[in-house]
Amino acid sequence: MTTELLTDLTIFVLAVLVGFEVISKVPATLHTPLMSGANAIHGVVLIGAMVITATVSAPYAYVLGAVAMAFAAMNVVGGYVVTDRMLHMFRRRPAVPAARAAHHDEEVAAR
User: Fold this and answer.
1) CA torsion angle 30 36 41 46 (round to 10)
2) Which of 24, 92, 104, 109 is deepest in the core (most CB within 10 A)?
3) Domain membership flag for residue 71
4) Residue 100 pLDDT
């Protein structure tokens, strides 16, 4: 293993640990805005991983680039899925028709 590869792997592991620690401290009310920003950042990371992978010559670099692209793509897609689910929580529920609501109230009162 070369010194350069060891340095890169060390930086990667430290980035993962710091990222996990920072994200785990985010309160739920800030999650959706943070996720939207993270989606934009991961889009840039995905493009960067593609550009860098296109310039490598070593086989292990292709594998590492493919892994980086896969993780970045998963983060982008997962971020949009989570953001969409959280935004659904803030939508108004459809109004219940008056006849159906009255029938439901009668059932509750009969119990």
Assistant:
1) 130
2) 104
3) yes
4) 63
**pTM score > 0.85 for this model?**
no
Type of residue at 48: G
| 37-45 long-range Cβ contacts below 8 angstroms, 24+ apart | 38/75, 38/79, 39/75, 39/76, 39/79, 39/80, 39/83, 42/72, 42/75, 42/76, 42/79, 43/76, 45/72, 45/75
Tokens of residue 73, six digits: 């793509």
How many domains is the chain built from? 1
Tokens 């439901």 belong to: 104
Please state, in angstroms and rounded to a whole number, the distance separating the CA atoms of residues 25 and 94.
34
Count of alpha carbons within 13 angstroms of residue 76, beta-carbon side? 14
Listed as ranges, residues in the chain with pLDDT below 70 are: 1, 31-32, 35-36, 95-111
Residue 111 resides in a domain: no
Domain of residue 60, residue span: 31-91
- Are residues 50 and 69 in contact, defined by beta-carbon separation less than 8 angstroms? yes
pLDDT for residue 80: 80
